[in-house]
Amino acid sequence: VQLVESGGGLVQAGDSLRLSCSAPGRSFSRYAMAWYRQAPGKQREFVARIRSSGTTSYADSVKGRFTISRDGVKVVLQMNSLKPEDTAVYYCNSGGTFWGQGTQVTVSS
Are 37 and 89 contacting, i.e. CB atoms less than 8 angstroms apart? Predict the structure, then answer.
């Protein structure tokens, strides 16, 4: 399964970004989908997950600022009130197994 992320970029602290993850010809409605991130010199860490039931969960560091949603063919991570510490490569994950190539998010102070 090929996952394709988009929407990363360079923004200032306090700005918003919207990341998208899609897989051509594949619906996500039956799978748990998640976003992870990896900052330079750090391990990849969990950011947010949405289960097939629609239940969502978030890392404490992004709770209240990030929102994960799904419309069947696309999974979206809406990121508000971005902070410099949110700078990382963001990866989409499907079913705990498949990964995208990542999209860079850089937040300047």
Answer: yes
Helix or strand or coil: residue 97?
coil
CB-CB neighbours of 32 under 10 Å: 17
pLDDT averaged per 10 residues in sequence order, the chain, 109 residues = 92 98 83 95 97 95 97 91 98 91 97
Edge-first strand listing for the sheet containing 74-79: 4-6, 17-22, 74-79, 66-70
Q: Which two tokens stand for residue 16?
A: 């918003």
What pLDDT is attached to residue 99? 94
Give residues with Cβ within 8 angstroms of 77, minimum separation 6.
18, 19, 20, 21, 35, 47, 48, 66, 67, 68, 90
Backbone φ and ψ of 7, nearest 5°: 110, -5
